[in-house]
């Protein structure tokens, strides 16, 4: 039986409630090309892709499989960590070629690079 912080019994959340949780995702370029995506709150939940979009799609699939496997095994599923919600900035180190492609794509959309990246992330299901 699961207990809350006051050691009172709580109902076990459904699989669907775990699948609907929003976990922070870390994305970084892979030295051999493409991108790596990781959910640090879910140990071993790691994926990769040739493009940012593919890496995000793959990590979302990996997150679902991780949670489903842990749920079926009766393992503890960690809740998402929440960093200081007042910090809304993000510092990224991008390869020059990717930065150039993002600037060009943002220009075609008449958007800043920040707006364009936020748009890409929103379309991926992370936003």
Automatic annotation (TrEMBL):
This is Antitoxin HicB. Transmembrane segments: none annotated. It comes from Desertifilum tharense IPPAS B-1220. It comes from the Bacteria. It holds the Pfam family HicB_lk_antitox. GO terms for biological process: regulation of DNA-templated transcription. Residues 23-85 form the HicB-like antitoxin of toxin-antitoxin system domain. PANTHER family: ANTITOXIN HICB (PTHR34504), UPF0150 PROTEIN SSL0259 (PTHR34504:SF2). Signal peptide: none annotated.
